[in-house]
Queue: 4 jobs
Job 1
Amino acid sequence: MDWGMENRLAQIIKPDGKCFFLPIDHGYFQGPTSCLEKPQETIKPLLQYADALFVTRGVLRSAIDPAKTKPVILRVSGGTSMVGESLENEMLTTSIEEILRLNVTAVGLSVFIGTKYEKQTLKNLTDLVNMCENYGIPVMAVTAVGRELEKRDARYLALCCRIAAELGARVVKTYWCEDFDKVTRGCPVPIVMAGGPKCKTEIDVFNFVHDGIEKGAIGINLGRNVWQHQYPVAMMRALHAVVHKKATPEDANDLFNEIKSKSEPQECK
């Protein structure tokens, strides 16, 4: 592996081999998402516990202090919205010149396997890999499912992750599922877990994160389960303990409740 690629991967994956990415890119298709209306305020108390930010170029420029940030994974796919016909009809939104100009550590895009736009989004991935490999920039493929949440089973996600790795992704972001080891076993590159919709209880989040790491994931890319929570710092710190300190779900829940007891709840509209 070239030094530049290895160096950038080392910035987002810590020496223990684990990572906690904080995604705040939801606005690229959802608009002003609840609790993320002002991204700079949302991330301020959370940033110290994150290993990298997953963000669009617009928010990066307008809301992220270049002197006080973490490594950046730049979202470079888009072109659709929640009110449009199809979330899967994405394109590449950012040139390699822009990626270099922003000095980001890695880039990420979504692929929608099994949809009408499968070939198009996989072509986006191959085009991005072809561009970024020349400059030592890692590509993270996001195995998105659009609105079809029932697709989140091990057989489907294993297929998606392997295809993304085969096409050159250096990291794959996917959903946790039952029998998650079937997903990680078949993927030759590191897998990070997405959070998906908000979970009903904190222990539900800690359980799936712990299970996924035990079964081969290197970390998480969780947003809404953190910054839409009434106690986002408590959630962030508890999840950080699961990822980087090998905390059990019960340990994480105890830590969450301890920090919660000393915190004021946030209110999101």
Job 2
Amino acid sequence: MDSHKLFDPVFRIVSRTAYGVAFASVSAVLVAAEEKLEPVELNDIRGMRYCEFLLIFDDRVDIYNTSDSAGCPDDLFKAIDVTKLAEEHGADKAQLNGPHFWAMDDQTVGMGETKTFGGIDARYAATLPLSAVGSGQGADPYKPYTSAKQQTMIFKAGSPVYELVDPEGNTYILNAYGAEVKDGDPANLANQLNPAEGWSFKVSTPTEDLNIEGSTDTPVQMVGDDLHQYYTLTGTGAQ
């Protein structure tokens, strides 16, 4: 049996009072004015599996996420034809992101309309600049960028957090990790990553809850590693 939690309808009923999602984003988020976002809270999500769909247009990237939907069946996700997906949604290109697993305990973030991608429902999460796709698989590794979206992440005291430390000593906390992580344990990234010069990876256990909060008014700094996991800076934008 997969050691990761799978999102199911029971979890959705319990946690639906608000809502949450976190994903890789680059530069300032260009949230479409016509999108009506609602805050949704997701609780007890450490290890929960999710997928994302990127619709790429000539001026933006629209992101849809399954965390507030009925999940991301592996057979359907693997069968998706991204060329067909782009045509169906009027985009220039499409990309698949995931599956990934959340590394925080709780979060709240804004989400919008639901669309269906190859039989999988996902909700609108953000609109990003074209730089969000980087070289084709997300932001370039170990190059920090700014993310401006409504999102609060909570890492509970007594649970491990996974950190990238930059050459100046700034600490970034892992938001989510991919299927490439050995045995589904982010601690194994210590032996899997090849950090850029001056960067390092470590695991720590906070004695108090760690909250990281961002908005369009108070953006946060993020960075990706060479396996395309994403981390958020503590300190600026963190409480």
Job 3
Amino acid sequence: MIPPQKQMTGMLGHPVAENPIDRMFDAVYAHYNLPWQFWKSDLASEADLALAVPALAPLGYRGFTITVPYKVAVMPLLNELDSDVKAIGAANYVTIEKGRLVGHNNDGKGVVKAIDKVVPLRGQHVVMLGAGGAGRAMAVEIAWAGAAKMTLVTRREEQGREVAALVTKASGVPCDWQAWQREVEVPAGATLLMNATHLGCAPELEPVPVRWDTVSKDCTAVDVITNPRITPFLATARDHGCRIVDGVEMLVQLAMQIFEQWTGIAPGEKVFQRAVAEALGE
């Protein structure tokens, strides 16, 4: 009997080494007895991305995820974009159907589900640090989920104002921009503070420069970083008295949706939670 052919999936980005997504997906594939594999590819430039993406369908890939910094740059390389990608202006995963590359974005859907497990988003004043490819998707989805107000804090004014305008246009929720100072002063009345930057990722583990005396203890702190689970930002927030939402929970929520899109199997959440915990050595 000829064994079934392995199906390829993967991630494109830079950097990708510390992301546990490959070990998580491979463990879930094994749980469901699927002859699938997940490969991470570190691409140093957009030029390399432009070479890699068209090669994936001929190589037998069924789909791939996109991480920083290529969630916007990948869009012109795809054959089709779903309505979320068109509204948000970024893609975080791709399905390959009969050789056609179709872009999707569920970054925001994952973060909304993770946050809603801890605190309802409706009525929140959300302050988001960073507004890159993932951040813009999360900002729009958080607004769609019922946030009352948003403030984006970025180093690049053009990017921050552009995403703030996108959020308001897509959702009707007021969204303003604030310059990233050496230490970020959180606006009065903020009820949810979210780190959507790469600060705090292993192995560097940089702290996020927040003036914690401007953060209410009633504020919920959210981080998108997946490794480590408890980042310096979240550890400081927890010590400050804030409730926290970690990036691993977001990864689980969005990965479950991607797995179902690729395989047609609705996975159990416990399977993914166990797989990611093992991947992180927890």
Job 4
Amino acid sequence: MSDSRRWAWPLLIGVLAAIGILLAIGDIAAGAKWPNPMSDALVGPGVVVKTGVPASATPGTQTVRFDRTGVAEKFIFESPIGGIGPLNPYQAVRAFLSSGAGLVLLALAGLVVFPGRARNAVERLEARHGSEIAVGAGLVMVLLTLAAITLLRFTLLFLAVVPLVLFVALIASLFGIACISLWIGRLLRRRLRLSNAHPLIAALAGALVVFDLAVIPYAGVFAFAAVAMAGLGLAVVTRFGSAGGWSFGDLIW
């Protein structure tokens, strides 16, 4: 194996991580200027800090991310592009090491705990129209879940079931995201003609792609919602990676 092929996977993972940090910088900067749901979810709500002028002077304040240590304030830079907030690489790296690493660990944990089921789910996803079916099934399940929660809210007896419904949907989505991460990693290997690698390495690259999509300024919340919805649909269609899969034929006897 040549040196270029040997270092292809580490280089790809490093590039994806760098892209994620750069996108997180833009996401945080945009969130400091205008409301940004994904930025708030990644690094918490913003606060106002002084910039060397009296507190009564409103133009002399900037919205940045909250940090108890005050280290983040030393890494705040004015954006060269007008209309967005200050750039804070420190907060972007912290978001990557917390939210990004959390997403990666959850994805890898799902593959380690359920390797056989994950393989079945990925094979179903790689089949013809597999991704379209997963997204469609996810949309249907989201609508059914919202309808079930709405109905349960009006009943005192079954109100306690609502957290259980949300928990099951969350677990299904996490399993599906783990499988989608592996699917993306395998897709990258084929498209970039990379050498064969351990499935967890491919899943690591795929999880970083999901994180990169999630931190795209403003569009990231929709991209991550689509991935989570597809993951939920994949878990339902494959019955959490069951070998038999889901079919209307099960209703016939």
